[in-house]
Amino acid sequence: xxxxxxxxxxxxxxxVTGRVVPPETLADQRLYLEGxxxxxxxxxCGTRMLxxxxxxxxxxxQWLSDPAASCPEFAAAVxxxxxxxxxxxxxxxxxxxxxxxxxxxxxx
Length: 108
Fold this sequence. Notes:
Layout: H1 3-11, H2 23-34, E1 38-41, E2 48-53, E3 59-63, H3 67-70, H4 72-75, H5 88-100
Antiparallel strand pairs: 1-2, 2-3
């Protein structure tokens, strides 16, 4: 293996901090953050997001748009959307998707 090839691999995954992150770690991170996410639209407002049910109690949501601009419940909230406890309509949509089988619960 040449020094250039070894250096090229070391450069893969260089973090903003300047430390080299092994490609395997980046793949694990991507799987943890993105694996199992499924597209879902709110049954009330139609806002689309990616959702993963890790358990009956744990749900991961990745918004595909600014929730304050696309979700009426978030838009009506006072203050930053990060402080909004959640959206009841979205919660109902996720529960309905679990019931009808379009969204699986990872541990069950």
